[in-house]
Amino acid sequence: RQVTSDASFHSVSFSETDHPKVLITGGLGQLGVGLAKRLRKRFGNNNVILSDIRKPPSHVFHSGPFIYSDILDYKNLREIVVNNRITWLVHYSALLSAVGEANVALARDVNITGLHNILDIAAEHGLRLFVPSTIGAFGPTSPRNPTPDLCVQRPRTIYGVSKVHAELMGEYYHHRYGLDFRCLRYPGIISADSQPGGGTTDYAVAIFHDAVKTGKFECNLKPDTRLPMMYIDDCLRATVEMMEAPTDTLSMRTYNINAMSFTPEELAHEVQKQLPDLEVTYDIDQVRQAIADSWPMNFEDSNARNDWGWKHDYDLPELVQTMLNYIGSDSR
Ligand code: AKB
Predict the structure, then answer these.
(1) What is the signed CA dihedral for 72, 119, 52, 73, rounded to 10 degrees?
(2) Which pTM value belongs to this model?
């Protein structure tokens, strides 16, 4: 490992007038392909490299650069950053909340050890680094309604613990080594053409697919479980805006962002306005329910709104309309 002194950092810097050269880790998860599409439009196809340890589907492979990268392999990561002259790193590899509880050792490796590799690579090569955090970085002793940026954070999941660790380590590297670390705490993200993998908020994606395909939905959270949520377009736009925000607008390095909050019952009701025959039943998953009961109900994001102009576009009715249009037209 090369990270031995402060002087070894910042050996490569990039001019702000150049297009960034972006690497996205965990690129085949819920958000990577959509983010790559957005960044490629802005910076050029070849300036955005998606990476993962899985084989990409052919439409992803043919839409722009894709590379194998294992964040647990430090040399492999460094080779990619050096050979491709990477200047921005978006670190999406992570195990989510529910799947993390089912495999704590793997979640610890990927979410904590993997992050250490990413931080060292980014600091060594003067990269701008984005790491998402989450509503899951809060816990039962945090204020839940609303949850501000700065408050008690004692999450009870390995996912939450690893995300608080990421927030603190990123901010530490920023203060200690000048790393340009940027972090947004995402709500549950709802997307039509990509699936979340093993989260607590997944029900809010599944309901749309089941409603369109079968007219029935079995929800694994109680009907009155309120959680903050966001449509994927808002999430990806927030990410790009925060990555591009001038340094002097950032009074903090980790921000809450929010769009809406709803319960399964409220979401089902909104979907039933379009699909009145939808039948919703409840079969509670105790692990997910306990996690959801410890998370924020409403997310306070005024710092993001004031500092760098964050503003969401999608509330619940627009979200439902957009999802149903998308999935409905796809299934025809
Ligand atoms: C999960 O449910 O684990 C994620 C999240 C809110 O971070 N979607």
Answers:
(1) -20
(2) 0.94
